């Protein structure tokens, strides 16, 4: 129920008196539910909703004023009124602060003095130990990097969810071997469970990741060196050091103009966390496949793999001396990645196989322990992937792709499966010459 609905209904008679007589703890619980429905809204929207609830009657006003949790959800460091911000921060007392959609104000004083910090942010950073949820979208300016650096050194021992998005690109010149005092939140954000970074480039070990369950990395600008940056995060995931990680999302992965000179070898040995339930990679096919074509890479049981791939714009023509298979033959390497996964999952037969060709090609394989989904918005490249999958598949693949009575498939899928089975027969009989009518 929206706050407006609560307000309008509460003013009807004689129901209003009955509602005003509800116990304070019940009213406070209802108010929390109202604000939770607005959790993805700007702080100003949540603030207006809470103030509207306060205006219904005296008992509602007292119930709201006496619950610090409510005010911890509406504190807005971007509030143009310093007096109102200070009042709301004081009402929140020692309650956790949840700032989900804050955007730094454009202040003329910041152009004159790059080190200028708005008083709202100064006050908020002094209470950083109370931060529970923090969602910031910042335009990259000199003063914003100052704010970010100050935020990075502020202790936040209660922080659980963090989102940092930059309308531009921010590089932090911090060494990978930086001391703990230079780590994000001085290394004290150990309860951090969810992390989303947009165009933020810095060594991943600056973030305390012991409790991290959700990781999303987003890039909207060109110039991000995948090999130098994303590989650091990927290595942490593959090594199992993020032992509680459940979901990983990588968006807009691309080599851009800087190609890797070698295969994605492991920096740190280990296995992925057994808690990992989903890996989602979106971007250029060569960049995504380069990450997956890693020695000893093995998906944990019940971990789904989702790939949303785009063509790499003829990178092999632009860089004829490229010698990394993921760049020179991404479709072929992708088929080998899928085949290796199937071989490891032999004890769990195929439950459903869907292959959709056309303008939006898609490959979906479901087994008893995982789902592999590959979308590739390049029909020619998708056909190359399927052909490579057929040619490189081992004889054991016949059992995996065998269509049982319970398996549902399209006519296109059935046709492709018949081609695969025919290829299996050719391999088994040793025939090398195929007539045109049989190919």
Short description:
This protein is of the alpha/beta class and 439 residues long. It contains 18 helices and eleven strands.
Description:
With about 450 residues, the protein is an alpha/beta fold. The protein is about 35% helix and about 20% strand. It has an 11-stranded mixed sheet. A hairpin with a 3-residue loop joins strand 10 and strand 11 (about 370-375). Helix 3 crosses helix 5 (about 60-65), helix 12 (about 285-290) packs parallel to helix 15 and helix 15 (about 330-345) packs across helix 16 (about 380-390). It is elongated, with a radius of gyration of 27 Å.
Which features does this protein show?
single chain; 439 residues; alpha/beta; 18 helices; 11 strands; 37% helix; elongated; disordered N terminus
Distance between the termini: 61 Å
What's the total number of strands?
A: 11
Mean pLDDT: 75
In terms of DSSP E residues, the strand content is: 15-25%
H/E topology pattern? HHHHHHHEHHEHEEEHEEHEHHHEEEHHH
Coarse shape: elongated
Low-confidence stretches: 1-14, 402-408, 431-439
From the alpha-carbon coordinates, what is the Rg to the nearest angstrom?
A: 27 Å
Helix tally?
Answer: 18
Strand order of the largest sheet: 1-2-3-4-5-6-7-8-11-10-9
Biggest β-sheet, characterized? 11 strands, mixed
Structural class: alpha/beta
Helix content: 25-40%
């Amino acid at each position: 129920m929206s706050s407006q609905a609560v307000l309008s209904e509460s003013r009807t008679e004689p129901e209003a008196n009955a509602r005003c007589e509800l116990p304070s703890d019940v009213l406070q619980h209802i108010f929390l539910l109202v604000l939770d429905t607005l959790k993805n809204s700007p702080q100003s929207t949540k603030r207006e909703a809470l103030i509207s609830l306060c205006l219904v009657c005296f008992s509602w006003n007292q119930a709201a004023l006496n619950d610090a949790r409510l005010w911890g959800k509406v504190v807005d460091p971007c509030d143009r009124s310093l007096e109102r911000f200070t009042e709301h921060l004081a009402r929140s007392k020692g309650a956790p602060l949840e700032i989900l959609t804050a955007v730094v104000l454009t202040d003329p004083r910041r152009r004159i003095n790059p080190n200028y910090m708005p008083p709202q942010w100064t006050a908020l950073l002094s209470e950083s130990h109370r931060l529970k949820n923090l969602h910031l979208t910042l335009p990259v300016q000199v003063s914003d990097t100052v704010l970010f650096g100050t935020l990075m050194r502020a202790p936040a021992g209660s922080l659980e969810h963090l989102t940092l998005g930059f309308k531009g690109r921010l590089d932090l010149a911090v060494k990978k071997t930086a001391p703990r005092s230079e780590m994000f939140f001085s290394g004290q954000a150990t309860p951090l469970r969810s992390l989303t970074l947009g165009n933020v480039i810095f060594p991943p070990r600056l973030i305390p990741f012991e409790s991290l369950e959700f990781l999303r990395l987003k890039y909207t600008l060109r110039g991000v060196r995948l090999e130098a940056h994303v590989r650091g995060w990927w290595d942490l995931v593959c090594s199992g050091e993020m032992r509680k990680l459940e979901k990983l999302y990588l968006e807009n992965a691309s080599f851009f103009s800087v190609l890797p000179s070698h295969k994605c070898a492991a920096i740190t040995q280990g296995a992925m966390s057994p808690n990992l339930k989903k890996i989602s990679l979106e971007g250029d096919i060569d960049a995504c496949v380069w990450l997956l074509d890693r020695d000893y890479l093995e998906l944990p049981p019940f971990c789904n793999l989702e790939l949303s791939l785009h063509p790499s714009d003829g990178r092999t023509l632009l860089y004829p001396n490229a010698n990394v298979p993921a760049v020179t033959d991404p479709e072929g390497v992708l088929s080998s990645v899928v085949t290796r996964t199937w071989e490891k999952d032999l004890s769990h037969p195929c439950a459903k196989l869907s292959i959709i060709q056309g303008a939006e090609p898609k490959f979906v394989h479901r087994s008893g322990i995982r789902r592999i989904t590959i979308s590739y918005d390049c029909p020619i490249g998708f056909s190359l992937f399927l052909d490579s999958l057929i040619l490189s598949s081992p004889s054991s693949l016949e059992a995996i792709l065998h269509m049982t009575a319970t398996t549902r498939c399209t006519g296109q899928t059935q046709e492709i499966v018949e081609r695969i089975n025919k290829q299996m027969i050719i391999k088994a009989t040793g025939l090398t010459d195929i007539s045109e009518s049989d190919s």
